[in-house]
Amino acid sequence: MPGPAEAAAVATEVARIAATPDEPTQRAAALLEALQRFLPFDAAWLALRDDKRAGHESLVSSGWDHRTATYLDGPVLVEEIEQLGMTRSPTPLRVADFPVPANELRSWAECLLPAGLQEGLGMCLFAPDGRHLGFLGLFTASPAVPSDAARDLLAALGPTLGHAFDPLRSAVAAAWLVRSATAAVALTRAGRVLAVPGLDDHPALREGSPVLAVARALLEGPQTSFLLPAPLEPGGYLTVTVLDVPDDVPFHLTAVVVLSPCGDLHGLTRRELEVLGLLVTGGHNNAIAHLLNVTQRTVATHVEHILLKLDADSRALAALRAERRGLYVPPGLVP
């Protein structure tokens, strides 16, 4: 176990690696290499929660065969981590700390003990706001119990390790790319809605909101935007920007949804913005008239005004410009 100077050195090294912009798997491998020098282990597993399939997604898994790695990613360990109370505490557990013998836990009886492992340190990783992100396990073939100092050092590194693999790091960076962003959330493939640190909450971005349903439906490509009617806001609207996230971002995030003040509406009226929303979806005048409960002649007049205001010589071009500029109210948000 390292002394105070060595512990400070490993903390500095872990913080440096955690702050790098590398992909999560690269950061995970580098962090385990740093930990290995001060907390020796024979096998290691660093994984993020996968809510959609009630398991984990390994970032790094070493010291055993593919079958063992697949087993650990499954649901058994999720249940045992909860059973041991680890999802409610940032303090690492040693096998000696278990409330029951290791051979009474399925993961140890069926997987870890047969693999020749007898002790180790394991802990859940948490974000600063308390979100449970994943799990780190460092396992040894020796039955020697890790020291209290080793346990305490890993506990002290926990917040830094959590920050290293918090998927909302990417969400925060994406959200701040939107000029004058005021509120934002991240969406997961499992349907969860996660607050983005540093930006405000907003009723329009809460779970079950029609705005989020529209955002999920409209996102194609790296970015899309549209208008949300907001009578109390300057201009009467908010701009909703939906940003895709890279496939390698962990935690199965699918998009970041950001609110910001609306820009220049080019003189478009409420009804014209609603008509544009239907033009963007390919609607014809008769269908638009039916949906908005107006006559086809009224729709034709709105379209004429839209062409003038967007300097477009066709409805197709007007729809394209409106979509690119986010100058429309999607049908799902029409009052």
UniProtKB/TrEMBL annotation:
One GO process term, biological-process aspect: regulation of DNA-templated transcription
UniProt cross-references to InterPro entries, sorted A to Z: GAF-like_dom_sf, Sig_transdc_resp-reg_C-effctor, Tscrpt_reg_LuxR_C, WH-like_DNA-bd_sf
Transcription among keywords: yes
Keywords: DNA-binding, Transcription, Transcription regulation
Any one Gene Ontology molecular-function term assigned to this protein's record: DNA binding
All copies of domain HTH luxR-type, residue ranges: 261-326
CDD domains: LuxR_C_like
UniProt keyword annotation of Transcription regulation present: yes
Protein name (database record): Regulatory protein, luxR family
Species annotation: Microlunatus flavus
